[in-house]
Amino acid sequence: MELKTSRMSPAGRAAGLPVENETAGDATRVVVIVPHLTRRGGGEEGLRRSPEARLDEAIGLVLAIDLKLVGSALVGLSQVRPATYLGSGKVEEIAELVKAEEAGLVFVDAPLSPVQQRNLEKAFAAKVIDRTALILEIFGQRARTKEGVLQVELAHLNYQRSRLVRSWTHLERQRGGFGFLGGPGETQIEADRRLIGERIVKIERELEQVKRTRALHRASRKKVPYPVVALVGYTNAGKSTLFNRLTRADVMAQDLLFATLDPTLRAVQLPTGDKVILSDTVGFISDLPTQLVAAFRATLEEVIEADLILHVRDMSHEDADAQAHDVKGVLSDLDIDPEDDHRVIEVWNKIDRLDEESRAGLFNTAARREGDARPIPVSALTGEGMEPLLATISQRLSRERVSLAIDLDAADGGNLSWLYRHSEVLERRQDGEGRLHLAVRVPPDRAEQIERRFGARRIKGTGEGG
């Protein structure tokens, strides 16, 4: 086992996690432990992702909520121990590190059972959290919209209910505390379970209302109708930086895991004059807690409904291929075919971080892929590659949509207004006889309706690339 200590200056306190004291400048001192199976049989994930890359990501998770990293360790395991996950010798070594560094928190980057968590806390004399708990804390700090806050709390409650944890300080503030809610003869665990269950039911009702509101918003956008382009990718792949580059918006774009949580929507005008709605979504990650995959499905509805998906990849990362595999797995869970090259465009980001040799190799690899499978190398930071990316988006969207020619009387304001509401008007001109000649673009499923209503004619070469 390789133990490392780190003397990093604190960047602030962590929300929702135990803190040594309440002084503003203090943060929880944390030791990061990354177990990895050293023999075959650990599954495909263990074979694809290097332990060192996993350690880097685990440290990134810790720094995402400003914990003070004071030590880290890669722990090789021949097998998982039911009582403590780690072997007894490793537990003793880590306990010495925790004591020496005066750490109040140990983050074990693995799924711990309640028994394993309790036993490790006794051995380390410190609070222990696993991967799911830390990601929940990060999501809780990042959530900004009402839906995001509710989704995080729902996932957190389900996680806590499975462990029957008794101290829920934030719920005590909201509901008056467990001690006042239990009926006669009700045990503490029963009271906890009942309280959490009641809160879950309430949140689920609120989320249903939020979902209905979102559905209305999506329906109104479809009537505009601008196509939706969704950004997806592994967390910290540069999606928000690319979003800002394309929209000139001010979205939180930091070198932090999960810098974006709630989806952000902006209208973007392409160089051709076409307008699209661009959606920035939460970053994906390996071993995303199952509670969050389910809870954030609604947040990812923008991806499910998107006309085009940009899969943003950090090509400077040593685990770029493994990260892409994880993203494709989440897309598959959303019933989206990640290999559908008509709908998914790979955007190879962060080429500004590559040396000349790596850069040349990357461009050669991209050029060898044919047709729609060809990725677009870009640097969202410097702006390199934006023109070919925008051109590809425009070309792909126009191929999927149908252009129609329509003739109207200039005085027919009702039908003209209808067309502006239900189609994208590309061209409008009036002849000397008072007739309007329009070129409009619509999704394929709306083309027949407009053809029947206006006697519209299809403009050759559109709507044939499905």
TrEMBL record:
<feature type="binding site">
    <location>
        <begin position="349"/>
        <end position="352"/>
    </location>
    <ligand>
        <name>GTP</name>
    </ligand>
</feature>
<dbReference type="Pfam" id="PF16360">
    <property type="entry name" value="GTP-bdg_M"/>
</dbReference>
<dbReference type="InterPro" id="IPR016496">
    <property type="entry name" value="GTPase_HflX"/>
</dbReference>
<keyword id="KW-0479">Metal-binding</keyword>
<feature type="binding site">
    <location>
        <position position="240"/>
    </location>
    <ligand>
        <name>Mg(2+)</name>
    </ligand>
</feature>
<comment type="function">
    <text>GTPase that associates with the 50S ribosomal subunit and may have a role during protein synthesis or ribosome biogenesis.</text>
</comment>
<dbReference type="InterPro" id="IPR027417">
    <property type="entry name" value="P-loop_NTPase"/>
</dbReference>
<dbReference type="InterPro" id="IPR045498">
    <property type="entry name" value="HflX_C"/>
</dbReference>
<dbReference type="GO" id="GO:0005737">
    <property type="term" value="C:cytoplasm"/>
</dbReference>
<keyword id="KW-0547">Nucleotide-binding</keyword>
<feature type="binding site">
    <location>
        <begin position="233"/>
        <end position="240"/>
    </location>
    <ligand>
        <name>GTP</name>
    </ligand>
</feature>
<dbReference type="GO" id="GO:0043022">
    <property type="term" value="F:ribosome binding"/>
</dbReference>
<dbReference type="GO" id="GO:0003924">
    <property type="term" value="F:GTPase activity"/>
</dbReference>
<feature type="domain" description="Hflx-type G">
    <location>
        <begin position="227"/>
        <end position="401"/>
    </location>
</feature>
<dbReference type="InterPro" id="IPR025121">
    <property type="entry name" value="GTPase_HflX_N"/>
</dbReference>
<dbReference type="Pfam" id="PF13167">
    <property type="entry name" value="GTP-bdg_N"/>
</dbReference>
<comment type="subunit">
    <text>Monomer. Associates with the 50S ribosomal subunit.</text>
</comment>
<comment type="similarity">
    <text>Belongs to the TRAFAC class OBG-HflX-like GTPase superfamily. HflX GTPase family.</text>
</comment>
<dbReference type="GO" id="GO:0046872">
    <property type="term" value="F:metal ion binding"/>
</dbReference>
<feature type="binding site">
    <location>
        <begin position="379"/>
        <end position="381"/>
    </location>
    <ligand>
        <name>GTP</name>
    </ligand>
</feature>
<feature type="binding site">
    <location>
        <position position="260"/>
    </location>
    <ligand>
        <name>Mg(2+)</name>
    </ligand>
</feature>
<protein>
    <recommendedName>
        <fullName>GTPase HflX</fullName>
    </recommendedName>
</protein>
<dbReference type="InterPro" id="IPR032305">
    <property type="entry name" value="GTP-bd_M"/>
</dbReference>
<keyword id="KW-0963">Cytoplasm</keyword>
<dbReference type="Pfam" id="PF01926">
    <property type="entry name" value="MMR_HSR1"/>
</dbReference>
<feature type="binding site">
    <location>
        <begin position="280"/>
        <end position="283"/>
    </location>
    <ligand>
        <name>GTP</name>
    </ligand>
</feature>
<dbReference type="GO" id="GO:0005525">
    <property type="term" value="F:GTP binding"/>
</dbReference>
<dbReference type="InterPro" id="IPR030394">
    <property type="entry name" value="G_HFLX_dom"/>
</dbReference>
<dbReference type="Pfam" id="PF19275">
    <property type="entry name" value="HflX_C"/>
</dbReference>
<keyword id="KW-0460">Magnesium</keyword>
<dbReference type="InterPro" id="IPR042108">
    <property type="entry name" value="GTPase_HflX_N_sf"/>
</dbReference>
<dbReference type="InterPro" id="IPR006073">
    <property type="entry name" value="GTP-bd"/>
</dbReference>
<keyword id="KW-0342">GTP-binding</keyword>
<feature type="binding site">
    <location>
        <begin position="258"/>
        <end position="262"/>
    </location>
    <ligand>
        <name>GTP</name>
    </ligand>
</feature>
